[in-house]
Amino acid sequence: KYTFLRLDPAWRRRAPAEREAGKRRLVEVLESPPEGLLVRTYSLTGLKANAEILVWTIGPRLEALQEFHARLFGTPLGGYLETTYAYLGMARRSEYLGDHAHGGEGSSSRRRPFDRPYLFVYPFVKKREWYGLPFEERRRIMGEHFRIGHQYPNVQIHTGYSFGIDDMEFVLAFETDAPAEFLDLV
């Protein structure tokens, strides 16, 4: 799950000691997620008008995600956080891969981030025309897509399938050490 959070400006007007204590409590929650849940955070300060923090949570149980977010919003600082976007997706192997080994994409055994400093999140829905193409044509197109992606080994992709569990059909996340490498890929 990718949760984009906006910090209410009123938080910045709180007393410094209160802000410091609130940050410490928030960090405690971020660093002690429920069992089986991985958490990564990214600062968006100065980059997005409607979000300062991105929280990426990875785990096999929706209940753990809910428990974590309830604890997060239950902190003193959490009361000043507003979710501006949230994207839920589940990992699975692409139907277009065939026998191709694709670096753990969608693998049930690989649910860990690569710990790169940048994460770009891209939710999308494929158009009806895409599904009107014969499966083998779609597989050929996706094979070319995968081939191009392999030319950028420093950009790692995480594909989340969302159809029926969220508003989007897919949510992609790209980890990289350098934003320019991601732009070169897309």
UniProtKB/TrEMBL annotation:
Gene3D superfamilies: Apc35880, domain 1. GO terms for molecular function: heme binding; metal ion binding; oxidoreductase activity. Pfam families: Chlor_dismutase (PF06778). Keywords: Heme, Iron, Metal-binding. This is Chlorite dismutase. It comes from mine drainage metagenome. The lineage of its organism: unclassified sequences, metagenomes, ecological metagenomes.
